[in-house]
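Tutorial handout. Part one gives the primary structure; part two gives the three-dimensional structure as C-alpha cells.
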Amino acid sequence: MYNGYRRTHPSAGLEADVKIHCVLPATITSPGYAEEQKTKHAVTKLLEESDPAQDEDQVAAASVEGLEKGGYLITTQWLGHAMRAGALGGSPRNNWLFDTMFSWVVSLAWLFIGPDMEGKVRKWGETHEVQLPS
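Part two.
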C-alpha cells in the first residue's frame, strides 16, 4: 500500500520502498527460556529435546545476516529453515528455486518426522496413563 502511494506521489517525500521482514528465531537460551521451561508441558519438552538452541548473540547475527540478504521470512538455524520451507504455501520466498526445492524435501521428510513425533506423544501418554476420549 505505502509503496504504491510513494511511486504515484513522488512529492510525498517518501524516498524508499517500505520492506517487510519477519525474523523467526527458534530456541534462544535466555532468562526467558529458562522461565518458559518451568511451565512447559512434558510432551513439548520431549518433542523439543533435540532442537538446536542459540544464544542471543547468535540469533542477532543470523537475523542481521538474513536482513542484509533481503530475506522475507528469516530463520536463524537449520531447523527453522526446514520449518519455514515446509510452511511457505503462498508466502513470498527468499529464493524461488532453493525454497521451492527445499519445501519438496521437507514435505518428504515429514512422512517420517510426523509419525515419529506422534509416536513420542503416544508413548508419553501410555507411560503416564493418559486416557484419551473415545
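Part three, for discussion. The chain has one domain: 2-10+17-127. The chain has a mean pLDDT of 88.
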